[in-house]
Amino acid sequence: VAFDLDGTLLDTVYDLAAAVNLLLADLGLEPLPTATVRDLVGKGMANLVRNALVRARGRAPDDAELAALLPRYQAHYESVLGHETEAFPGLVPMLVRLKDEGFRLAVITNKATRFVRPHLDRAGILRYFDAVIGGDDAHAKKPDPAPLLLAAERLGVAVTGMLMVGDSVNDAQAARAVGCPEIGRA
């Protein structure tokens, strides 16, 4: 069973919003409401920063500005990582039961790889996962199916024998592209 991270296993939007708003403050811009940031999450950090700037100042950064701002955003994110993240109710008992039943578990996220294991560790759930795939581990991010194929390889199963559990269109599209059963809101 493979799970998306943000919005599926953990409610990480509060940390993401804090980091976005620290970056906006650096730029002299007004903070965005957490609900707005929640709507911007799902296609990686560059997309989040780009869309946050569009919302905050009415225009997107050019490629050079975005490249300069991403390390600043990542530093802010690292400083708040796990401070306000919440596990969804019933998560740990579900993971325990799946492991007790013999399922191998994976996390597949577009989040930058360097943040994934620390985030899972701070939430107290890293030990349940046999494979952790971050946004930098495959040659492309979801909705491309490459991360699912990599997870299936690391779990030692056919991708068609793995269930993808997610909360976004990206998760569903990636799974459907390779015949992986999926369940989620999308």
Task: Describe this protein's structure.
- The protein has helices spanning 13-26, 34-40, 45-57, 63-80, 91-100, 113-122, 146-155, 169-177, and strands spanning 2-3, 10-11, 86-87, 106-108, 131-133, 164-166, 182-184.
- With 186 residues, the chain is α/β, with parallel strands linked by helices.
- The strands form 2 sheets. The protein has a 5-stranded parallel beta sheet with strand order 5-4-1-6-7, sandwiched between helices. The protein has a two-stranded antiparallel ribbon with strand order 2-3.
- β6, α8 (169-177) and β7 (182-184) form a beta-alpha-beta unit.
- α1 crosses α2 and α3 crosses α4 (63-80).
- It is globular.
- The mean pLDDT is 95.
Number of helices: 8
Work out the number of β strands: 7
Mean pLDDT: 95
Strand content: 5-15%
Q: Assign a percent range to the helix content.
A: 40-55%
Short description:
The protein has helices spanning 13-26, 34-40, 45-57, 63-80, 91-100, 113-122, 146-155, 169-177; strands spanning 2-3, 10-11, 86-87, 106-108, 131-133, 164-166, 182-184. With 186 residues, it is an alpha/beta fold.
